[in-house]
Structures are given as structure tokens and as C-alpha cells.
Amino acid sequence: MPLNRRFRRMTRVGPVQVGTAYDNRGREKHTAACTAPRCGFSADYDSRAAAELAARTHRCPVR
Fold it and tell me: Which top-rank group of organisms is this from (predicted)?
């Protein structure tokens, strides 16, 4: 069953969106996810800076 997260503080860095939400244990998590077709990149991070760094350095493998 997928998680239903309520994201806040959504920002966009190129094709990657960075958002902040709480996980199922009440901890704040930051997610970076690529919105390009057929890319599939997404990752959770403990700090906002790490998520934004991943968004800035992400390169889509599908061209």
C-alpha cells in the first residue's frame, strides 16, 4: 500500500521537485523526485540541503 504524504514547501530545480513531509513515524523527511518522463528518480533525505543538492546534481539517464 503506497504512502499518502502531504507535502509542503515544494520547490522545483530543473525537472526535479523537492518537497517536505512527515513520514509514518512523525519525522520530517525531504524528498527529491524527477518529473521527466521515464526517469524514475526519487529519494528521501533527512535534511533539506541534501535533497536540494541531489536535485541540482541529478542528470536524467533517459534522453
Answer: Bacteria
State the distance between the two ends of the chain, measured CA to CA, in whole angstroms. Answer: 31
C-alpha cell, 42: 526519487
Q: Quick check: 16 and 34 in contact, CB under 8 A?
A: yes
pLDDT digits (tens, 9 = 90+) for 8-31: 889 999 999 999 998 888 899 999
Three-state DSSP at 50 gives helix
> Considering only CA atoms, which of 9, 15, 10 is closest in space to residue 57?
15
State if pTM tops 0.85. Answer: no
